[in-house]
Amino acid sequence: MHEIRLSLVMSAVCLLPWAGLRAESPKAEMASEKGRLIALHRHYQSAAAMSAQGRLVEAEAELRVIVSTCREVFGKEHPDTLTSRSDLAATLAGEGKYAEAEKENRAVLAIRQRVLGKEHPDTLLSRNNLAMTLQEQGKNAEAVREYRAVLEVRQRVLGEEHLDTLDSRNNLATALNDMGRHAEAEKEHRAVLELRERQLGVKHPKTLASRNNLAAVLQEQERHVEAEQEHRKVLALREKVLGAKHADVFMSCFNLALCLEAQARHKEALVFMARAQEGFKKGLGEGHPYTQAAEDCRKRIAAEIKK
């Protein structure tokens, strides 16, 4: 069972602010047009709130309304329409609907490449998001190709230490780890961690994601003691910075439980896995892949204790 991560950087429901929905067209002066724009704004606010609360199924429904309305009001190639579709894809991925998310990301990417060009930041973000959905489906070779393409442009245009470049290096390293290329992945994660610590500080969520990912690489190499130390550091800081009920905290509980299980410390592992499973269940629902994975692991660990 692989570790679960909240480590990939995508446009995770980063809905446009209302100012981004351009109401200055001549038609906006008409009452019917204003009414649609006001309704669109309300759906935006609702979707943003639902996403923040982890109510992804409801957020998906709201985003579908937003996408449909944006198409009608602005057109299918308008930046706001594409952003709403990208946000819908991110929500679908958050629900574990990776095939649907891949399809949506591919559609948005095709339009952005044609309209904006291959090196536009929005186009690169779409390629990154597509790579994420490929990776989550185990299509790691394809994901690595997409991540490398994005990284090459960001390194050339933004520089080696730009935060977006570091995001790409992080994502590429996670895919390399999934492919079994652990030494390469470890080298990349250590480099990104060092830069993020310097630029963002040791408590920043992205810094903690890098430390979590480094622990995952160490775990894959069966360096369990080192991995456990990193996981415990990440869990403690996430609890302090984000609060005990944050999704990242449950990810850390899950990963630490696997690390403890690998060391045959089953009673300790069961405590953390049960916490992760309950957290995923409340936040993501019983049918989410993370909830199901945690439940399967909890049962397996409990069975080991009974032997």
Q: What's the tally of helices?
A: 13
Overall helicity: over 70%
- Structural class of the secondary elements? mainly alpha
Low-confidence stretches: 1-30
How many strands appear in the DSSP assignment?
0
Coarse morphology: globular
Average pLDDT across residues? Answer: 87
Secondary structure layout plus pairing:
Elements: H1 31-52, H2 56-74, H3 79-94, H4 98-116, H5 121-136, H6 140-158, H7 163-178, H8 182-200, H9 205-220, H10 224-242, H11 247-262, H12 266-284, H13 289-306
Helix pairs in contact: 1-2, 2-3, 3-4, 4-5, 5-6, 6-7, 7-8, 8-9, 9-10, 10-11, 11-12, 12-13
Describe the protein.
The protein is built from 13 helices and no strands. By secondary structure, it is mainly alpha-helical. α8 runs antiparallel to α9 (205-220). The longest helix has 22 residues, at 31-52.
Question: How would you summarize this macromolecular structure in one to three sentences?
Answer:
Helices cover 76% and strands 0% of the residues. The chain has 307 residues and is an all-alpha fold.
Index terms:
307 residues, mainly alpha, 13 helices, disordered N terminus
